[in-house]
Amino acid sequence: MAQSRSYNSPKQVMRRERILQVTQRLIDEEGVGGVRMSRIADQSGVSPKTLYNIFESREHLLLQAATRILDGIAQRGHVEVEPGIPTLIALTENTMAQLLKSRDFMKDVLSIVILADAETDVARQRLGRIHEAALVALSIAREREELVGGVDIEDVAKLVAANQWGLALLWVKDMIDIDTFARLAVYDHCLSLMPLCKGRRRQWLENKIKEL
User: CB within 8 A of 150, min separation 6: which ones?
Assistant: First the structure.
């Protein structure tokens, strides 16, 4: 898929920001079906040609808007906890809490990302961020000697990310309800990581599972 053109002047950046804000508002108010390029152009005060110069397709615009929404949720969910695995679990818990507050809206947002073309750079970036967060957490755990020997943290981080998005797909497809998704997202992280940890960190994960 071709990349959108680069618009870097202050005026162009503001125009792009306005378009994304309009898109996010329409997703929130009317769902994905309410996002039409002609309508976005009209409400953003730009011509259709300009809109397509900035975002080459409706899919690309939706994906950019959805990614911004998810990034905003992750930032709002930031809390000060012990670095490493506790940070990963806290991030997941807070993300799920935000999701529960806006169920229909977040279902639309996640469906955009999950069903996007896998070759889209933004899709790869979004799907890779859970992997990145897990890899950082596991790297810290290894430095603190919290992991058993022989753990391939790269493979484990991929598994954590795959499991998270697998649950999201089940929810988007109405195969599980939102409360189950929110609970299993945290439970699955703990269950996947517990056998790989030792000592205090393993006990911490065992206690976390009991709380769920």
Answer: none
